[in-house]
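Interim report, section 4.2 (structural modelling).
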Amino acid sequence: MKTAVDPKVIEGFRARAAEEGLLDIAYTTADSPFGPLLLATTGRGLVRVGLPNQDADELLADLADRVSPRVLEAPGELDEVRRELDLYFAGKLDRFDLPLDWRLSGGFRQRVLRAINRIPYGQTRSYTEMARRAGNERAVRAAGSACGSNPIPLVVPCHRVLRTGGALGGYGGGLPMKQALLELEGVLDEKPRT
Amino acid sequence: MLARLIHRVTALPPFQTVLDEHSAAVMGILRGAVGRDGAEDCFQETFLAALRAYPKLGDAGNLRGWLLTIAHRKAIDFHRANGRKPIPVAEVPEAATENGLPEPDQGLWDAVGALPPKQRAAVALRYGSDLPHAEIAAALGCSPEAARRSLHEGLKRLRKELA
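Predicted structure of the assembly:
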């Protein structure tokens, strides 16, 4: 027997959960020019951005496992993130002003990601330079893998990291997306060397 | 590899999944146990209590039974708070129903609400939520035989009271 539950009742539950501080992770999906994004936030800030080619259910299961199983869909908690992303995709925002929760990456990886987070809009850096800024110039491969495991892509702009010499390198959302983002930021205006 | 796999199977899923999968069943038993008006409030209380306790729940094996147990407790709280008073009505409706089956009338559910807790839960789970004995047993934390017995005793009492 299926008993339909009035969405207002669910909404009321969600509001009371938020009021009580039980929304450890709030998430929503948002449209983007590349497809749907998964956005997840904790009390500290944005913790996960899932790109269109990533399995949202798997990302949520991973968050439940690594951060807290109190994961609820709560679009209102991500209004500001969505607003800034929309502006970014429209070419009208060159710096995100969002609190970030770095807890999904630790140690060297987090240092790499924090260094990436300081690369200005419209500029690129090499993996080698990121390794150096994170404190170990020789750990270029590790820096590459930190980029690859970036839990907050787009906002932490790992798409601005290229191979020495300018080749695109890799991207979790696929190389066409990386290229399009760099074109949006005015870095690439012709076919890149790959 | 195997440890990872086992972990995946037993790990707690995101609470949203629990809400999506079981909200209809919880609402079903609550409507049976406390009536349509009380059910919405009990529903929110049930899922809030579940969300509070969720991270400490060791085993994701029987989430439905766990939720139904909480719902059952919330229904009991509701009846306590409302003093289990039957609501008097001016007249009893005698209109035909669409499918020819009798609508569960409020008087009947009031009588269900006045049953001892185990019997009430068994009746509500069986006829409000259409659950089989095994699931009623899981929700009540007793054996299927005990669930069957509670249901039987509850029905016997209802027949007597409503005769």
